[in-house]
Amino acid sequence: MKIALFSDIHANLPALEAFFADVEKRNPDSIYCLGDLVGYNIWPNEVVNEIRKRRIPTIAGNYDFGIGRMSNECGCAYKTDAEKDNGNISISFTNSLMKDDERAYLRTLPAHIKVEFQLNEDKLNLLLVHGSPRKINEYLFEDREEKSMLRIMEQADADIMCFGHTHKPYHRVLNSGIDGQDHFRHAVNIGSVGKPKDNDIRGGYVMLTVDENSSVLNKESISVEFIRFDYDFEKAAKAVEDSPLPNEYAENLRRGY
Amino acid sequence: MELPKDLHYSKEHTWVRIENKTATVGITAFAQKELGEIVYVDLPNVNHNFNQDEVFGSVEAIKTVSDLFMPLSGKIIETNEHLLKEPTLVNSNPFDNGWMVKIEIEDLIETENLLTAEQYAQLNN
């Protein structure tokens, strides 16, 4: 079972189109979208419609949650006043672009998707969230303390937890077994299709493979492949520059930050 | 920013309310504001002993995780269980309902290492 997982498109249509071209060649069994379809670029409606017409199960990101409700708050933890000012321009511009039907779609997106596999006479729970199971906009960076990450996964009963939001991909395997019995849990940040922040300008997504031997007892039995694809980032950057959006967002696309 | 005068403060942004040999400990309004929305507070078990300045727990906020440093040596006698269900009490009411632990103070002389409200305010100007 090959499962493609992507998120954080952020209204970047050239990146989304390149993602679809890449993922379709790899012929996954299913595709899920982990949210943040809109914000920071000029194509929020187009991105919603491309995902919607393919009937891809999708959860809400914090930006979708805010725009869906016509809010001026996106749940983004901007640090500086300059970042906040730019963020306000982006959310107000996105609100002005968003059409009613597409906004209603964002408003009704679910918060989580849970997929339970039954393999080897045991269950294997895949949980899909945007930020974390407890907060749509919580940032789970790679350096999160093991104790904290495990507690989050245990409370959510997640053996494989996939999420986005930070735009920085990683895969951590943590053992929460007791009394000498292994129980491996996989925390997978799937990166970002349309606004990567790991200094690689290419779009990114994940191909998760679960097969009949997959189990919490064997950490190698679940495979996570990070896939990067080229796209016309200059077109996306120019679109930002030709819009009311701050030019910094164009530079971010050119630098992968 | 709110800074009650009757409390002691540490450089690590905890406050202490001393009543006889008991100290109530929390984090300051400044600290909660810097952290942003708090989603989980990891507190120690009752009867656990800590030294002054030792890490006794952590606060998990939306963007970051921060250790909690014990302002005075002592034994944990109570933890604020309301924070398990409602960690944002630390944001909304840091000096009152957002308290974190109560300790039995080992030696009051350690309060000499703490700051007054004025000294803490100067430090964070």
Q: Based on DSSP secondary structure assignment, what is the total number of beta strands of chain A?
A: 9
* Head-to-tail CA distance between termini of chain B: 10 Å
Helical amount of chain A = 25-40%
Largest sheet of chain B: 6 strands, antiparallel
**Count of DSSP H/I helices of chain B:** 4
Please give the number of β-strands of chain B: 9
What is the H/E string of chain B? EEEHEEEEEHHEH
* Main β-sheet, spatial strand arrangement of chain A: 3-4-5-7-6
Poorly predicted segments of chain B:
none
Q: What kind of sheet is the major sheet of chain A?
A: 5 strands, mixed
Q: How big a fraction of the residues of chain B is strand?
A: 35-45%
CA radius of gyration of chain A is 18 Å
Shape of chain A: globular
Give the N-terminus to C-terminus distance of chain A in angstroms.
32 Å
Shape of chain B: globular
Q: Most extensive chain contact? A: A-B, 13 and 11 residues
Strand content of chain A: 15-25%
Q: Tell me the radius of gyration of chain B.
A: 13 Å
The proportion of residues forming helix of chain B, as a percent range, comes to 10-25%
**Number of DSSP helices of chain A?**
8
Describe this structure in words.
The complex is a heterodimer of chains A (about 260) and B (about 120). Chain A has about 260 residues and is an alpha/beta fold. Helix content of chain A is about 30%, strand content about 20%. Chain A has helices at about 15-25, 45-55, 60-70, 80-95, 100-105, 145-155, 235-240, 250-255, and strands at about 1-5, 30-35, 115-120, 120-130, 160-165, 170-175, 185-190, 205-210, 220-230. In chain A, the strands form two sheets. In chain A, strands 3-4-5-7-6 form a five-stranded mixed β-sheet, with helices on one face. Chain A has a four-stranded mixed β-sheet with strand order 2-1-8-9. In chain A, helix 3 crosses helix 5 and helix 7 packs antiparallel against helix 8 (about 250-255). Chain B is globular and about 35 Å long. Chain B is α+β, with helices and mostly antiparallel strands. Chain B has helices spanning about 30-35, 80-85, 90, 115-125; strands at about 10, 15-20, 20-25, 40, 50, 55-60, 65-70, 75-80, 100-105. The mean pLDDT of chain B is about 95. In chain B, the strands form two sheets. A six-stranded antiparallel β-sheet of chain B has the order 1-2-3-9-8-5. In chain B, strands 4-6-7 form a three-stranded antiparallel β-sheet, with no helix packed on it. Chain B contains four helices and nine strands, in the order βββαβββββααβα. The N and C termini of chain B lie close together (about 10 Å). Chains A and B meet through helix 6 of A and strand 4 of B.
